[in-house]
Design a protein that fits this description.
This protein is an alpha+beta fold. It is built from two helices and five strands; from the N terminus they run βββββαα.
């Protein structure tokens, strides 16, 4: 069984530590081997350490460092809606997070 959750642009992740705990974000750029630039509709674009992110199986098709408007359009096209509640995502998408 191979590894399927790679750190890549467009990968949806869950913040597992800090003041934004529980928020879903999208990786928009990889800064170095320890940090990524993440963004979400309801938060300011920021750098986070990979230790503070839990990767999901969900990937959005976006270019590197998109505008906020472009990111929101790509999320709507993929059928994702971000919020405080993780229950907004389809059940099949959430299942790998909690296993």
């Amino acid at each position: 069984m191979g590894f399927k959750r790679y750190v890549e642009i467009g990968r949806v992740a869950l913040i597992n530590y800090g003041k934004d705990y529980g928020k879903l974000v999208v990786i928009v750029d990889v800064v170095d081997q320890n940090r990524a630039l993440v963004d979400a509709p309801d938060m300011v674009r920021s750098q986070l350490n990979f230790k503070r992110l839990t990767l999901t199986d969900i990937k959005i098709d976006i270019n590197r460092v998109p505008r906020k408007k472009t990111l929101i359009e790509a999320m709507e096209k993929a059928g994702l809606c971000f919020g405080r509640s993780k229950c907004i995502l389809p059940f099949d998408a959430l299942l790998p997070i909690f296993l």
